[in-house]
Design brief:
The complex is a heterodimer of chains A (290) and B (170).
Chain A lengths: L5 E3 L4 H11 L3 E4 L5 H6 L7 E4 L9 E4 L2 E5 L4 H5 L2 H6 L1 H8 L4 H6 L2 H7 L6 H7 L3 E5 L4 E5 H4 E3 L2 E2 L6 E8 L5 E8 L7 E9 L5 E9 L6 E2 L1 H7 L4 H18 L10 H26 L1
Parallel strand pairs in A: 1-3, 2-3
Antiparallel strand pairs in A: 4-5, 5-10, 6-7, 6-10, 8-9, 11-12, 12-13, 13-14
Chain B lengths: L13 E7 L2 E7 L5 H8 L18 E4 L2 E4 L12 E3 L12 H8 L9 H14 L5 H8 L10 H15 L4
Parallel strand pairs in B: 1-5
Antiparallel strand pairs in B: 1-2, 3-4, 3-5
Classes of the chains: A alpha+beta (290), B alpha+beta (170).
Chain lengths: 290, 170
């Protein structure tokens, strides 16, 4: 059962921000509601007001501009899964969207809502980190850009200010000699471990850039620079021999906790397995494209 | 506490107009009311089942403009201006929808509790993709859980219904 609350339906980002400023912690932004309403039904959190932002126009578009894919925060997982532009520009992202929860959650749930709720067992944040995404935040008086790595502060906590709204997710298109993979593992509704990998090569098969991120296992998704450093500057073959070590490092960095989704050491181990598989998948995609 | 506390005496009512199984309905709902409760308690359509209550099982599935939604976690005011279809709206003039007929013919259920959600989810799938392959059916139906049996008969029912729905002259 949901407890009674009032509903506000602003039609601009500024008005929504003003409502947040006015009502403070007694209010919360409501978009798809797929996570918020569950927590409210359970009585874990209560709000006197929900601010429905779905009447704000223009926040559910996917556009390509100067090599950057711009996704409105209110775009649902389902429309991202089926978006032709995403499929072409960022296939790994479309694939990740296709495997979020189930089709009903994807129909209601929005990308922005997913990120702002910052539930640790979520997929998009981890992948956005390796894609080099920027998140656009807006309030009445100002706008700013936040790197995906900086966005998550802790479980259920982001760096957004109390009256700030996430409006857009900007993802640079993947360069020609680069590959991306996002893999996850779990046996409950939500993933136990998620891993994102981005690799770019020069013409001589040397890895010029490597980005590794782990999520779900601990309180928040994070980049693992130490693992990235091992792979960068190596040939594919050399990197391949270092994957075991890179995976161990990433496993420890995941800050895994023991819970219903698995024991900490088990999750750490899975991180390593997923890193190897992600690496193999990118190499395979690369050779099938060549 | 911030100002604007929602006290019982300042209850908010949202007038909504929506289509329920083809009939236009006008009513008013409070913001916290859930679609499943309005469908079951106000309109008496109890084919929509509440089960897990956390958007995992699919028993409460209804179609909103043809899209599957968990009515247990959808606020009722969201139906505003949309077409809602429940299992009661599927048969036309006493004639079962091919999916309903196929579930009966192929034994696609045992206790039947998950069946309304299964059939509506399958309808959404076939409306979007009339000729899904096995993997596509499984992926789409993954969020609908049956606790009586395996999923083989359900899968067979959907495949059979898809064939009938595609047949010429329908």
């Amino acid at each position: 059962m949901l407890r009674r609350f009032r509903l506000e339906e602003p039609e601009t980002v500024k008005d929504a921000s003003a409502l947040l400023a006015r009502y403070g912690e007694a209010s919360r932004i409501y978009a798809g509601g797929t996570e918020l309403l569950l927590a409210m039904k359970e009585g874990l959190i209560q709000y006197e007001r929900l601010i429905n932002v779905k009447k704000i126009p223009g926040l559910d578009r996917v556009e390509l501009e100067n090599g950057v894919v711009r996704i409105g925060a209110l775009t649902t997982h389902r429309s991202l899964e089926n978006d032709p532009l995403l499929r072409q520009q960022l296939p790994a992202f479309g694939q990740m969207e296709r495997n979020i929860a189930n089709v009903r959650v994807r129909e209601m749930g929005t990308l922005g809502g997913n990120l702002c709720f910052a539930e640790p067992h979520a997929d998009p944040g981890t992948l956005l980190m390796v894609l080099g995404a920027k998140l656009m935040a807006e309030k009445t008086s100002s706008k700013r850009e936040i790197a995906a790595e900086q966005f998550f502060v802790d479980a259920y906590e982001t760096c957004l200010e109390p009256d700030e709204l996430l409006t857009e997710i900007r993802i640079p298109s993947t360069p020609r000699r680069a590959g991306v993979a996002y893999l996850k593992f779990g046996y409950l509704e939500r993933p136990s471990v998620g891993l994102g990998l981005f690799l770019a090569w020069n013409g001589a098969d040397t890895i010029t850039e490597a980005r590794v991120a782990v999520g779900c296992a601990g309180p928040k998704p994070r980049r693992v620079e130490e693992s990235e450093g091992l792979l960068k500057g190596k040939t594919s073959k050399e990197a391949s021999a270092l994957l075991g070590r890179a995976g161990e490092i990433a496993g420890r960095a995941a800050d895994a906790i023991s819970d219903l989704h698995g024991a900490a050491d088990y999750k750490q181990h899975i991180v390593g397995v997923l890193l190897k598989r992600a690496f193999q998948q990118i190499l395979q995609d690369r050779s099938s494209k060549a | 506490m911030a100002e604007g506390t929602a006290k019982a005496e300042d209850r908010q009512f949202i007038p909504i107009s929506f289509t329920l199984n083809g009939t236009t309905q006008q009513t008013q709902v409070e913001p916290h009311e859930l679609l499943i409760d309005v469908i079951r308690n106000r309109f008496g359509l109890t084919g929509t089942k509440r089960s897990c209550d956390v958007q995992v099982c699919g028993a409460c599935t209804v179609l909103v403009d043809g899209r599957p939604m968990s009515s247990c976690t959808t606020l009722a005011f969201e139906a505003r201006g949309h077409e809602v279809l429940t299992i009661e709206g599927l048969a036309k003039n006493g004639k079962l929808h091919p999916l309903q007929a196929a579930f009966i013919e192929h034994g696609g259920f045992q206790c039947g509790f998950c069946t309304p959600g299964m059939i509506l989810a399958a309808k959404a799938l076939l409306d979007q993709n009339p000729e899904p392959n096995r993997e596509e059916i499984i992926h789409f139906m993954e969020g609908n859980i049956c606790r009586c049996t395996g999923y083989k008969k359900i899968l067979e029912s959907i495949v059979a219904a898809a064939k009938i729905l595609r047949s010429p002259g329908r």
